[in-house]
Amino acid sequence: MKKVIVITGISRGLGKAMTDEFIRLGHTIIGCARSASAVDKLTTKYSNPHQFTCVNVADEKSVREWATKTLGNYSPPDFINK
Ligand SMILES: NC(=O)c1ccc[n+]([C@@H]2O[C@H](COP(=O)([O-])OP(=O)(O)OC[C@H]3O[C@@H](n4cnc5c(N)ncnc54)[C@H](OP(=O)(O)O)[C@@H]3O)[C@@H](O)[C@H]2O)c1
Q1: How far apart are CA 4 and CA 65, in angstroms?
Q2: Which of 12, 18, 21, 22 to mutate for ligand 1's pocket (most ligand atoms within 8 Å of CB)?
Q3: Are 64 and 49 in contact (CB under 8 A)?
Q4: Which residue is closest in CA terms to ligand 1's atom 15?
Q5: Which atom of ligand 1 is nearest to the CA of 58?
Q6: Which residues partner with 48 through β-bridges?
Q7: What is the set of domains in the chain, with CATH numbers?
Q8: 16 CB-near residues (< 8 Å, 6+ apart)
Q9: 27-38 burial, b if ≥16 CB within 10 A, otherwise e?
């Protein structure tokens, strides 16, 4: 069954690897990182329904705005990888 998965740190390393693999398996990824260039690259590579946003998870206001926007556009996530 296809899942909606939130992943923080999608710009490189484990977060990027999980993003590529979960999308390959048909899941929807909602991801964030601080690197605007990495977010832009993923947005170009993987379009709708996936969503990649520049968010610093240490900034509570940004995280709150990201969560509000996400919950307005998607069903509640099935998994959160942070
Ligand atoms: N979602 C996850 O489950 C996840 C993802 C990645 C790493 N990790 C954990 O991190 C450790 C090292 O993994 P790794 O070798 O893959 O690390 P890594 O190559 O250093 O990657 C860390 C990721 O986290 C992002 N990141 C760091 N600080 C952030 C912040 N304040 N706000 C938003 N994103 C931030 C980085 O992107 P920017 O620099 O562009 O912000 C990058 O995408 C492991 O213990 C692993 O479990 C977990």
Answers
A1: 18
A2: 12
A3: no
A4: 13
A5: 31
A6: none
A7: 4-81 (3.40.50.720)
A8: 10, 38
A9: bbbbbbbeeeeb
What is the band of 81 on the pLDDT scale with cuts at 50, 70, 90? Answer: confident
Distance CA 59, CA 80 (A): 18
Q: Is the dihedral of CA 59, 60, 65, 66 positive or negative?
A: positive
The predicted model scores a pTM of: 0.92
Q: How far is the CA of 9 from the centre of ligand 1 (A)?
A: 4
Q: Is 9 left (phi over 0), alpha (psi -120 to 50) or beta?
A: left
What spacing in Å lies between the alpha carbon of 48 and ligand 1's midpoint? 23
